[in-house]
Amino acid sequence: MVMATKKSEAPVAGESATVTILDGKGKREQALPVLSGTLGPKVIDVRSLYGKTGYFTYDPAFMATASCESKITYIDGDQGILLHRGYPIDQLAEKSDFLEVCHLLLNGELPNAEEKVKFVHDITYHTMLHEQVINFLRGFRRDAHPMAVMVGIVGALSAFYHDETDYEEPHARMVACYRLIAKMPTIAAFAYKYSIGQPFIYPQNHLTYAENVLHMLFATPCETYKVSPTLAKAMDRILILHADHEQNASTSTVRLAGSSGANPFACIAAGIATLWGPAHGGANEAVIRMLKRIGTKDRIPEFVNRAKDKDDPFRMMGFGHRVYKNFDPRAKVMRQTCDEVLGELGLGDDPLLPIAKELEKIALEDSYFIERKLYPNVDFYSGIILQAMGIPSRLFTAVFAMARTVGWIAQWKEMMEDPGKKIGRPRQIYTGYPKRDYVPISRRG
Ligand code: SDX
Question: Are 380 and 162 in contact (CB under 8 A)?
Fold first, then answer.
């Protein structure tokens, strides 16, 4: 096992911040501890604030709130930095592979040769679904969105693995992690095959994880399907780029669901549901719809103006990010992969690619985008690659969910292993009616 160079064991206290409160009770100050991590902003520990002052903090979209301590992923939005257990995303995308990154996210270190063989074997031998799960699939309409199917099927797996409900036990947690990572491609592929009326193609143990994704999606019983090494490499890189991303909306959902002790399969189903939204993981599918709607380069200015118009609901999908106020480092790797894949497939004339590149160029030179630090994010180019690989746009977010499952479950595992874990229960500022008495219907207006 490769030993880590340096990480902090816990947030370091020492400094403090003072809140000065001036209200009807006069002026008073309250000192609060400041905690430091290994990298990134320090935090003001407000856990004692309500008890000491009677005040809550207010941060409805968590714009400035650290919800947990984590050692898994670090993002610097200003510098465009993304580290997984300290390793930069561009190095992992270039030099590692998805299952190696899964081991890193789950266990904190890159596997040595022996550990890698065992981990790949263990994941490989969990890729099959219980045959009865297919009954659930057949209950969906053929035109059901793959994300609706994934929410349903993954949630239903909590009924298949209820026997290992003691997730305080490390082995049960490890098995749940392996099952979820291993089965997501099978579920996504089965959902796709069901939607096009083709027979399910089962995973093959001699194939790599990424090769199996493509095999299950595109093979048929009628002929031998040879997985393209180019497409397998591109798929593996896309999976790495989407694996984890700190406390994004879907990961926060998984952590909150898990904090109640809910079954991990149900927690991941909640994460899938959150990822589906167009403001989050659904953006890759929305980018392709947007590029097709723009249609030609000469219509780009029209849509850039619409994106800037507050009265127009149109947004530039694939642009902007809550954390990145610089280039999303994943978008850079994705754009390079786009060029490689389209070039190797002889699709350099893909009509959407020049529109995407021109749109990126125009937006990055436009003061509206510059002032708001709106850059292409991970979703801007991923859809073009996936489409070039023959994957239908309705399946794009399911591919994102396939990759993000390791991030969700690694963060769930970290939360479960936290000796100080507590159920998450935010408060609110109440602006509704003060107390009032019931009014009988005879006296209502
Ligand atoms: C992902 O959190 C994660 O890490 C997510 C993710 C992950 O790996 O898990 O990185 C994956 O979800 C990437 C984001 C994919 N979504 C999109 O591409 C959808 C389009 N982007 C936007 O909806 C938006 O940028 C968000 C949702 C991504 C971020 O929104 P914020 O942080 O709440 O920012 P905001 O809406 O407050 O915008 C700030 C300003 C506003 O203008 P003003 O009110 O200040 O005048 O920027 C504008 C917004 O109107 N703006 C956009 C825009 N994004 C923000 N204007 C036009 N087009 C856009 N895309």
Answer: no
Atom of ligand 1 nearest to the CA of 249: 2
Residue of 136, 129, 142 lying closest to 194 (CA atoms): 142
d(CA 317, CA 233): 26
Q: Give, using CA atoms, the residue closest to atom 27 of ligand 1.
A: 279
373, 133 contact by CB (below 8 A): no
- Could you tell me whether strands 12-23 and 26-36 are parallel, antiparallel, or unpaired per DSSP bridges? antiparallel
Q: Is the minimum distance from the CB of 244 to ligand 1 under 6 angstroms?
A: no
Reported as a pLDDT band with limits 50, 70 and 90, residue 14 is confident
Q: What is the pLDDT of residues 282-294, one digit of tens each?
A: 999 999 999 999 9
Q: Whose CA is nearest to atom 31 of ligand 1?
A: 322
Mean pLDDT of the chain: 94
Nearest CA to ligand 1 atom 23: 279
Q: Is 321 near ligand 1, meaning CB less than 6 Å away?
A: yes
Burial class (CB in 10 A: 0-12, 13-18, 19+), 69: middle
Task: Confirm whether 163 is a catalytic residue.
Answer: no
What is the pLDDT confidence band of residue 2, given thresholds at 50, 70 and 90?
very low
Catalytic (active site) residue 130? no
- Is the pTM of the predicted complex or chain greater than 0.85? yes
User: Using a 6 Å cutoff on CB, does residue 407 contact ligand 1?
Assistant: no
